[in-house]
Amino acid sequence: MTLLVGRRVLLVEDESLVAMLAEDMLLELGCEVVVAMRLDKALAQARTGSFDLAVLDVNLGDARSYPIADLLFERHTPFLFATGYGRQGLEDAYRAVPVLQKPYQAAPLEHLLTRLLTEEPLARPGTRGSSMACACHTPDGQPIRADRCR
């Protein structure tokens, strides 16, 4: 049994097939999953729901998920960004947030979510805080694929 069993996760992903894949991975890890595919729906969920963790796709069509991230910071809810662009695809203010390289893979997803639950919370953008350096990134911050995770 892992720390993720029974955890409530907000999954924000605008591509339906990708959302289903990520949801299946989270369910296999024992998480309860709430999926939001649009910015307005995700914001509503983040405002009214109670979540242990969140996984945010950075690009939601013509919008970015940064307003959701800001709300999660306020609510002290640990989260990560999922993107195919890596850390370079984030605005500078959010570069300390952990990044899961797309396409979603189960091992790095489990690794980062577990780290979110066991490490000190990140500071809000513009403040000092942990950058969550870990074995799923090279020393220069590049994500390591699942087959290279330690």
Tell me the Rg in angstroms.
Answer: 14 Å
| Fraction in helix | 25-40%
Q: How are strands sequenced across the largest beta sheet? A: 2-1-3-6-7
Tell me the series of helices and strands, N- to C-terminal: EHEHEEEHEEH
CATH architecture: 3-Layer(aba) Sandwich
The termini sit apart by: 19 Å
Topology, element by element:
Blueprint: E1 8-12, H1 16-28, E2 32-36, H2 39-48, E3 53-57, E4 59-60, E5 63-64, H3 66-74, E6 79-83, E7 99-101, H4 106-118
Parallel strand pairs: 1-2, 1-3, 3-6, 6-7
Antiparallel strand pairs: 4-5
Helix pairs in contact: 2-3
Question: What's the quick description here?
Answer:
By secondary structure, the protein is an alpha/beta fold. It is built from four helices and seven strands; from the N terminus they run βαβαβββαββα. The radius of gyration is 14 Å and the shape is globular.
Descriptive account of the structure:
There is one protein chain. This protein has 150 residues and is an alpha/beta fold. The protein has one domain (8-148): Response regulator (Rossmann fold, 3-Layer(aba) Sandwich). It has helices spanning 16-28, 39-48, 66-74, 106-118, and strands spanning 8-12, 32-36, 53-57, 59-60, 63-64, 79-83, 99-101. The strands form 2 sheets. It has a 5-stranded parallel sheet with strand order 2-1-3-6-7, with helices on both faces. β4 (59-60) and β5 (63-64) form a beta hairpin. The longest helix has 13 residues, at 16-28.
